[in-house]
Design goal:
With 355 residues, the chain is of the alpha/beta class. The protein has a domain at 1-130 and 298-330: Isopropylmalate Dehydrogenase (3-Layer(aba) Sandwich). The protein has helices at 21-34, 47-56, 80-86, 91-100, 113-124, 159-176, 198-208, 237-262, 266-274, 276-286, 312-328, 330-345, 350-354, and strands spanning 9-13, 40-45, 65-69, 106-109, 134-139, 146-149, 183-187, 215-220, 232-234, 294-297, 302-305. An 11-stranded mixed β-sheet has the order 3-2-1-4-11-10-5-6-9-7-8, with helices on both faces. Helix 3 packs across helix 5 (113-124) and helix 6 runs antiparallel to helix 12. The longest helix has 26 residues, at 237-262. The protein is globular and about 60 Å long. The two termini are 20 Å apart. The relative contact order is 0.16.
């Protein structure tokens, strides 16, 4: 059931980012100015810092912006469980508690990933049937972006975890990429059914049982990831985190190399001027800020992890993604499909379960 967009309120952990609260507030301001439908934001952090920032941006009296004071911050280098026990008034903790209490529908944080995952899991708990939540990220590709899941929540996953990732990733693709029937691929070392380690082989076998619940296209190799072969790529958190960071580094390398080569001599500079619109379109297509923020899927609440070094554009992008997740009410559909998936894996037919 879709959520009324006029009731969407998002909490924003203002203290966790590397660039400081000023950049977080600027990102929220950008989100407010660009949205076509009203969204309310609850800034969580030190009000003595946030109030002047809101005043400087002209948002101190905005009807859709409020502050929840939090006196503590969890640092990037702090151990998750210990920091949660010691800092109960941390901005991240207070923001997640707003989700738990139903005061907001989602939270976005640039803070400590481990602490965010631990606090989210402890406060919100998993959706029934989901053993472990997973982080999902949207990656640009040749034609349309794709969902990569998991990108770091669970470095060691069982076949059941990976199958659940297929359900979580499919729901995310439907909500944010507007793909009615996402194609799912299992990242492996070959497309043949006999290739891969024992976990990959077992996951492949289980995924084949889930048609038509999951539109599983089979194993895919690394060189197929950006070729629009599938809409959702599933893997464990160790592999996914490596793929994500290598992809980000590669996009940056391509952009820097183009800049260097295009100004190497006057003839190339002229060509660069003539091709300016093409380069601008390429930059927009590869820009990760438009889908910034990786949701922690599988919890009874919406949590998005933005990159620690997120600038204002990335924060605005993360807030937009959070809004889409809220509006599409993924938790309800994930709950239903996880139950159907587990029923199938336990030997029941999908048709029998649905009747």
């Amino acid at each position: 059931m879709a959520v009324d967009p006029t009731e969407c309120t998002i909490a924003l952990d203002a203290m966790g980012g590397d660039l400081g609260p000023a950049e977080v507030v600027a990102g929220m301001a950008e989100a407010l100015s660009s949205q076509s439908r009203p969204t309310s934001f609850r800034l969580v952090g030190d009000e003595s810092i946030l109030e002047p920032l809101l005043k400087a941006t002209g948002l101190d009296s905005h009807p859709n912006v409020s502050i929840l004071h939090a006196s503590e911050v969890i640092g990037m280098d702090e151990k998750p469980i210990q920091s949660l026990k010691r800092k109960r008034d941390a901005s991240m903790v207070r923001a997640i508690e707003l989700v738990k209490d139903g005061e907001v529908q989602a939270v976005v944080s640039c803070g400590n990933t481990g602490a965010l995952m631990a606090c989210g899991t402890l406060r919100l708990r998993q959706i029934p049937g989901v053993d472990r939540p997973a982080l999902a990220s949207i990656i640009p590709s040749r034609k349309t972006p794709f969902v990569l899941i998991d990108v770091g929540a669970n470095p060691e996953s069982t076949p059941e975890h990976l199958v659940h990732n297929a359900v979580l990733g499919s729901n995310y693709a439907r909500a944010v990429l507007n793909i009615t029937k996402p194609r799912v691929g299992l990242l492996s070392i070959g497309t043949e059914e006999s290739k891969g380690n024992n976990r990959t082989l077992a996951t492949h076998s289980q995924l084949k049982q889930l048609q038509p619940l999951i539109d599983y296209c089979g194993p895919i190799e690394g060189f197929q990831v950006f070729n629009d072969v599938v809409d959702v790529v599933i893997c464990d958190g160790f592999v996914g985190n490596v793929v994500l960071k290598v992809s980000e580094a590669l996009f940056g390398f391509i952009g820097d190399t183009l800049k260097e080569e295009l100004v190497r001599n006057p003839k190339r500079k002229l060509g660069a001027v003539l091709s300016r619109s093409a380069y601008r379109d390429m930059k927009r297509k590869l820009n990760p800020d438009q889908y910034a923020g990786a949701p922690l899927l599988g919890l009874n609440g919406n949590i998005l992890k933005a990159h620690g070094a997120s600038n204002r554009h990335a924060i605005a992008g993360a807030l937009r993604v959070a809004r889409e997740i809220v509006i599409h009410d993924m938790i309800e559909s994930i709950t239903r499909e996880i139950a159907e998936t587990n029923a199938c894996l336990n030997g029941n037919s999908l048709a029998a379960f649905r009747t």
